[in-house]
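Page 47, continued from p. 46.
Same chain as before, 95 aa.
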Amino acid sequence: MDRDSERCSLCRNWRPHIFYPVLGYCTVKGRLTFDDDWCESFMRISYDEERFYWCLTCRMRLTSQEAREHASKGHKVYLSGYIDPDVREEIYDAF
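Result:
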């Protein structure tokens, strides 16, 4: 396989940032990476496990069956999304 087919955004260990989807959290490295990074710990996402998934395209939680349906439509589906602990810094005062 080439590196493009093993990039972070296709790995089961990667959690896309909910506001900045070109960034994500790698559960193996324990840090943020870009969606086109890669490493030797790559594992392709599968939607066979009975669990909930995150559709980045629709911004909603899915069952495994729904995850397969969304993925077949070309949606970006992950095991979960990443919420930055400092996301409160992104919330602007409305007054």
